Request: fold
Amino acid sequence: MSSLNHMLGVLDLFTEAEPIWTINEATESLGRSRSTIYRYFRALTRAGLLVPISSGAYALGPFIVKLDRQIRLSDPLLRVAPALMAKLRQKSGNVVILGRFFHTSVLCIHQEGDPDDIAVTFARGRTMPLFRGATPKVILANLPVRVLKDIYLAHGEKIREAGLGGDWNEFRANLRKIRKAGFYVTPGGEVDHAVTGIAAPIFDKQKEILASVTLAVSERHCTPEMVESFVEMVRATAQEITEEVARLEDSLGSKTADNFAPAAAG
Reply:
């Protein structure tokens, strides 16, 4: 792992449960020398990614807020998905979640509706385990085989505990079924008590998995007829987002090409 990766790894220390860290605490947690951690903290503070808040203590810095705004305004997925998710929320009456693959988990990058309405823990900015729930399973099912192989080798025990497969072949076969179906429905309580997740994949222009959109539905609304209706809604929304992201990327690509086009001869 590079020095840059080690430095950026410092940011992973700052969580909702532990939002404040000192250099000494970070040194002990990360197992690096104090001088190295000091350099990391100094560089991250200069960049605005950390901010000193009291004698020797640090919190996440204001530049992260700036980056958050920039990604909302510039990421094609986040420019397209919210409006379509809002339509799904209005039509279904349920919380809608947008999840993206991130390291060895899935990160919620947008939501429509109040997750507290049905006690959904997977809210914006929170990560979800990779092997439980509709959102991550739909993403897993559409990852390239080489990526899945690496995931299996690193997390075989967790995969077995989640019931996704006792060996590599079974794991791959289970994910193939999800990919072929084009959606996934979790039983209520797999992630949140009395909540069923219904997810479908979103793809980029190269037909590679980009994200997943999920309805979080109270179990009391999950009759077979309602689930069938919700599945159709979610799949339609995922397809719309896929198509709109491709259109926006084409548009942005055309503008970029125009900016670099040679001037016409006079």
